[in-house]
Design goal:
By secondary structure, the chain is of the alpha/beta class. It has three domains: 102 residues, Response regulator (Rossmann fold, 3-Layer(aba) Sandwich), CATH 3.40.50; 156 residues, Rossmann fold, CATH 3.40.50.300; 76 residues, Helicase, Ruva Protein, domain 3. It is 48% helix and 12% strand. Strands 2-1-3-4-5 form a five-stranded parallel β-sheet, sandwiched between helices. It has a five-stranded parallel β-sheet with strand order 7-8-9-6-10. It has a two-stranded parallel sheet with strand order 11-12. Helix 12 links the parallel strand 8 and strand 9. Helix 15 packs across helix 17.
């Protein structure tokens, strides 16, 4: 099989015929060729060597036989009901990623693209982390320099800027790229469970994520949300060098502010801040916004099976002028919504952004003396009467669960639900 054919082919192993066809349609809409089978043996019989594909998507029930065969391409395991112990076992056995059975194409295709990108000779390019603006060029040069080292990296940036993509690129270009990259988001795990998730439970069969990452990379996202007690345990592990891991951490919070408020350990901060990478917000990336928008538009049209579309002149002006508080994630959401509702030409109304209103926001949002928490408080209090919780979370580029937790921590009570009149669109 030609290399170009191999790198465009996705092998799908799924016993449920209806879901197997759905998975095939999703990957084909994204530009891949799909080779589907109900079992590993059926795939071998009909498709030949399993390694002659770009990646494998496999039902959790079939994964043990597949992984036992020593397959050397990315493997994405789909589970009906995901659990941390099962995920750890799958990753240890050689799976690239372990996902809850996706309900939409986007939930599958993004991790699929990332898994394939990790095989690339230039992970920074392959992960579509690019841009011609000076701050992005400087960032990418630093990524290429630090990736092959064993140095601990601290990634900072607003929500939605792509911190996890940078972490994946660092891992893919490191000497540990053949081992697992284990990711944990501290904002997505209840405080009383996070210690067990990281370190396991003594006397129990539950293994922690540090053990699962042995030999590979552990990526701790939103490390500013880590409880103080757990910070102390993590510091001990790092100081003792007892875990064979490369540590990458990320935060959208100002850790210096947390330190001054006795919410983050200064000694842990110094252990983490060996190499610091700051991802610029989208509003500071100049013409990169339009380059990204064009790339996302083409990719979204393919994924949704829509005809090629284009932005009209007014829409391009709005894209360039808008403040993008949710950064790249908000840009992706706006474009997907426009593609679904549009018919080829993307207008400002389809994007549902108000560039004239947004121009008044950057001064308060980017002022040096204002922290990310200040911006969160001001945005939520200003817009919670007009937006639902889901809309607020989407605009901020976070999950509803993270929105709720930050409300609790910052003491921003959710107002009682009132009957909503005609929706005011503030975008």
């Amino acid at each position: 099989m030609l290399l170009s054919e191999r790198m465009n082919r996705i092998l799908i192993l799924e016993p449920d015929e209806v879901f197997r066809q759905q998975l095939s349609q999703w990957v084909q809409a994204d530009g891949y060729a799909a080779a589907a089978a109900p079992s590993v043996s059926a795939a071998v019989a009909s498709q030949g060597p399993l390694n002659e594909a770009a990646a494998v998507i496999v039902n959790e029930s079939l994964a043990p036989n597949l992984l036992a065969a020593g397959i050397s391409i990315p493997v994405l395991v789909l589970a009906e009901c995901a659990t941390v112990p099962a995920a750890v076992s799958a990753i240890k056995a050689g799976a690239t990623n372990y996902l809850v059975r996706p309900q939409s194409a986007g939930e599958l295709l993004q991790p699929l693209r990332e898994a394939i990108a990790e095989q690339s000779a230039d992970p920074v390019h392959a992960f579509s982390i690019g841009g011609n603006s000076p701050p992005m060029q400087a960032l990418l040069e630093h990524v290429r320099k630090v990736a092959p080292t064993e140095s601990t990296v601290l990634i900072s940036g607003e929500s939605g800027t792509g911190k996890e993509l940078i972490a994946r690129a660092l891992h893919a270009a490191s000497r540990r790229h053949k081992a697992a990259l284990i990711s944990v988001n501290c904002a997505a795990i209840p405080t009383h469970l996070i210690q067990t998730e990281l370190f396991g439970h003594e006397g129990d069969t539950h293994r922690g994520l540090l053990e699962a990452a042995a030999g590979g990379t552990l990526f701790i996202d939103e490390i500013g949300e880590l409880p103080l007690e757990t910070q102390g345990q993590l510091l001990q592990v790092i100081a003792a060098n007892s875990a064979n891991i490369r540590l990458i951490a990320a935060t959208q919070r100002d850790l210096e502010v947390l330190i001054n408020n006795n919410q983050f350990r200064r000694d842990l901060y110094h252990r983490l801040n060996v190499v610091s990478l700051l991802i610029p917000p989208l509003r500071e990336r100049g013409e990169d916004i339009l380059l990204l928008a064009d790339e996302i538009l083409a990719r979204t049209c393919r994924r949704l099976g829509k005809p090629a579309a284009h932005f009209n002149a007014d829409a391009r002006q709005a894209l360039a002028s808008y403040h993008w508080p949710g950064n790249v994630r908000e840009l992706e959401n706006a474009i997907e919504r426009a593609v679904i509702l549009g018919e080829g030409e993307i207008t400002t109304s389809l994007l549902a952004i108000d560039a004239s209103r947004a121009k008044a926001e950057p001064a308060s949002a980017t002022a040096p003396e204002q922290t990310m928490e200040d911006y969160f408080v001001s945005f939520v209090t200003a817009h919670q009467d007009q937006l639902t919780e889901t809309e607020l979370a989407e605009r901020l580029g976070i999950s509803r669960k993270s929105l709720w937790e930050r409300r609790q921590r910052l003491n921003i009570p959710r107002k009682k639900t009132r009957k909503r009149g005609p929706r005011r669109d503030i975008r």
